[in-house]
Each structure stands twice: as C-alpha cells, then as structure tokens.
Design brief:
Length: 396
C-alpha cells in the first residue's frame, strides 16, 4: 500500500504527538506510526514536571484545559541535606516563574484524543518501521500495520520522535552523527503510591546513604524516587524496605512521611547523551531520539516538547512557505537548549547523588555547593531560572 503525507512521524510519545498537533494547526498533514498499543502509551509512567514555558505552550495550542483544572502549580522546591530542609522560592527568585505537576500520561492521553478527534492518522502496534531514500527530497516511511499489511508512505519530511531505542538515529548516514555521553554509577528506583503527598512542593534530598526525591502526581497520588546502585535488582526492594529507606533519607525533625499502597515500581538507569547533528536533509530527530538527560531536574519531557515546537515552525517554513532557513538552523537552535539542560541535569545529579567509594572530597564539594545554593541569592537564582526553563519557547 503506497500513500502520501507531508510529514511522516515515527513515535507516538509526547514529541511525535505534539509535533503532529502543531503541524495540523499550521495546515500541514502528518501520519504518526507507533509500535506500542494506545493503552501502553497512555499508561507508561514517566515524567511529571513541566517548565513554565511548556505549560504556556500547551495552553496556547488548546491542550491546557485538563492541565489547568487538575495540574498542581508549584512556586518552588525544597532542597535537603544534613537533615535540614531549605525552601527555594522560584517566583521570588525569577520574577514570577513557576512549574506545574502534570503527568506525561495525561499529556499523552489528551494529545491522542485531540489527534484522533481531528481525524488524524495515528497507527498503533506497527512493526518493521523503516526510513529510506533519505538522500532524496521525498524520503520514505515503511511499516507493517497491526493487521499485517505493509505500507510505504512518501513524505516531504520525516520526524524521528522514536525515543532513545528508536530506529531513526541509526538510519542517519554512517559517520554523520557525533555522540557525547556520560554514564552515572547509580539508578533511580521510582514508585507510584496511592497516598496524599506528605509535602506541598517537591523535596530533593541529598543523604549520605543516597539521594531521595518526593514528588507527586495528584493530591491523592505520590511519586517517590530513591538512588540505588546502577545494576540493582528490583527484587531486593520489597515495599517495606522502600518506605523505610525513603523515611530514612527524607527525615527531618518534626516531619513525617505518609505511606500507602505502591501501585508501580521500576528502576531506571541514568545517562547523559547528546547526538548531533539532529538532522540529515529531510530527516529530523526530536526528543529522546536525539538526547537523554538524567532525570534530576526534570528536563527530558520539556526538551522533547521544546524540540518539536522549534521543528514545527521550521517544517512550516520549509513545506508551506518554501523557506529552508529555519530547517537548516533546526539542529543548532535545538542543541543550544539541549546543552543548557544537559549541563543543568548533570549539575543537579552530581550535587545530590552519592558516588560509590570512600572518597571524602566529593561529598564535601556537594555540601559546599548545597550550602551556597541555599544561602546565596545569586546561586539560588541560577538553579531557579534553569529549573523553571531558561530558554523561552516561541510559538507565534
Ligand atoms: P518517548 O516518550 O520515548 O516516545 C518515543 C515513542 O516512539 C515511544 O512511544 C516508542 O514506543 C516509539 N517507538 C520506538 N521505536 C519505534 C519504532 N521503531 N517504530 C515506531 N515507534 C517507535 N522528563 C521531564 O521533563 N520531567 C520529568 O519529571 C521526568 N521524569 C522522568 C522519570 C522517569 C522515571 C523517566 C524514565 C523519564 C523521565 N523524564 C522526565 C523523561 C521523559 O519521560 C522523556 O524525555 C520523554 O518521554 C521523551 O519523549 P519522546 O516523545 O521524545 O520519547
Ligand atoms: C519528577 C521527576 C524528576 O526527575 C524531577 O526532577 C522532578 C519530578 C516527577 O516524576 O514528578
């Protein structure tokens, strides 16, 4: 079966779905192919914290209704170390900026619903995705649909929004893509629990036995993370041990962590990874397909959505107005934001996690930095403006 579209999009994560939505607002048609089921995409537990610019974008493009009704606006965070909890007031430090707790699962649900309601073609449960003829002006997207029919779509451009393990990055010509990366000798064990959060804003805690984070999804559902060894086995963490360790690492005098039934439990590795350029001719990479940050500081989802905002504008200029300038600049434009967020995520991660081994130098540097960030307005402002989103998003 041969078909035609303007933009073939690989991946129905937040990047691919939002790109399809933004292009439609500019009158550009797209087809999204996704190898998982709709239910799987809507239930996959991941990010939960949006920069101010990301929430403003969602509002501006008609996706803010549920977020405004159910999302939780936070004007700061707590940074904890040496059994002391310090508040950073982002609104005060940044002239009014904030962040919003609104789960990736909910963004994906709203996006899928909006795309299908608009009559868009979103193909779930595909297999054998391939991109071809990348050196031509009409690249091809091939896949087999859920019923077993093979399709070939002739595209004006292809967007690789297929995450870190997708196929698009590796389809770029050999030798083109340079990779810069860092591994970390620890992972995060994340849980979702049916219990009201024990805090009004997120708590990032550096503890000598490892990092812990208390975040949330709603007023009834808590999300918490623990630093664990890189190769940790989840079987070693029964629920009772998780709560005991969270209580230990988040402890401050006069405060108590409420526990409840754990509904989800998973270990995620930590990695910094940047592939550049993010484009070869008419194949464009966006989101986790091009870059990964460690989760400390919550940048991954925000970066994915920022990439496709830039990309939608670039593709509109290219395909509707015949102006290749913004598409030519896409990779450089996006990589500036990506590297800012890569530095911030690395910095937050390094300041808060305990390195294995007996070295006393690293911990003293971390404590010196944490004392500085919680006592100097200049240092606190640096954290606050990066956390709430340093580069503004433009969606004219
Ligand atoms: P993905 O969400 O990975 O979507 C890619 C899609 O492509 C997937 O649906 C995949 O199934 C599909 N796909 C892959 N290969 C193919 C193929 N061959 N054919 C068709 N489809 C394919 N970020 C934040 O900003 N804030 C946070 O608080 C935060 N917390 C996180 C917590 C955890 C535990 C984790 C793991 C991540 C977190 N992140 C956070 C990161 C964030 O979730 C990701 O950066 C985000 O999902 C990236 O979106 P994406 O659309 O680029 O990629
Ligand atoms: C969340 C995850 C993060 O990595 C972070 O820094 C803040 C919040 C979350 O899942 O809510």
């Amino acid at each position: 079966m041969t078909a035609r579209t303007q933009v073939g999009i690989v991946g129905a994560g937040p990047a691919g779905l939002l790109l399809s939505h933004l292009l439609a607002l500019r009158g550009i048609d797209s087809i999204v192919v996704e190898n998982r089921s709709r239910a799987y995409c809507e239930a996959r537990q991941r990010a939960g914290l949006l920069e101010a610019g990301t929430t403003e974008l969602l509002r501006a493009v008609g996706l803010g209704k549920r977020m405004d009704a159910e999302g939780l606006e936070h004007g700061g965070i707590y940074l904890q170390f040496a059994r002391e909890r310090h508040h950073l007031d982002f609104r005060d430090l940044t002239g009014g900026r904030w962040v919003t707790i609104w789960a990736q699962t909910e963004i994906v649900k709203d996006l899928i619903q909006a795309r299908l309601a608009a009559g868009a073609q979103v193909e779930f449960e595909v297999s054998g995705t391939e991109v071809a003829d990348l050196d031509q002006d009409r690249p091809l997207l091939r896949y087999t649909d859920a019923a077993g029919t093979r399709h070939e779509i002739c595209c004006d451009a292809i967007a690789g929004c297929d995450g870190f393990h997708g196929i698009c990055r590796d389809s770029m010509p050999p030798g083109l893509v340079q990779v810069a990366e860092r591994g970390y000798p620890y992972s995060w064990l994340g849980i979702l629990a049916t219990v009201p959060p024990s805090t009004d804003e997120l708590i990032y805690s550096r503890h000598q036995d490892g990092f812990a984070l208390h975040t949330m999804r709603t007023r009834q559902v808590s999300r918490l993370y623990l630093q664990v060894p890189a190769d940790e086995d989840i079987e070693r963490w029964p629920d009772g041990r998780i709560w005991a360790e969270l209580r230990h690492r988040l402890d401050v005098p006069g405060w108590e962590l409420k526990d409840g039934p754990i509904t989800e439990k998973a270990i995620s590795p930590m990695r910094s990874f940047v592939a550049s350029p993010m484009r070869y001719r008419r194949l464009f990479l966006a989101g986790d397909a091009a870059h990964i940050v460690p989760p400390t500081g919550a940048k991954g989802l925000n970066l994915a959505m920022a990439d496709v905002t830039v990309l939608a504008t670039a593709l509109t200029s290219l395909l509707r107005d015949g102006d290749p300038g913004p598409a030519d600049a896409y990779s450089d434009t996006s990589l500036r934001r990506v590297w800012r967020a890569t530095h911030f995520s690395w910095w937050m991660t390094s300041m808060l996690h305990v390195e294995p081994g007996p070295d006393p130098f690293g911990p003293e540097l971390q404590l010196a930095q944490l004392r500085y960030v919680t006592s100097s307005r200049a240092a606190a402002t640096t954290l606050a403006e990066n956390y709430t989103g340093y580069y503004p998003l433009h969606w004219p």
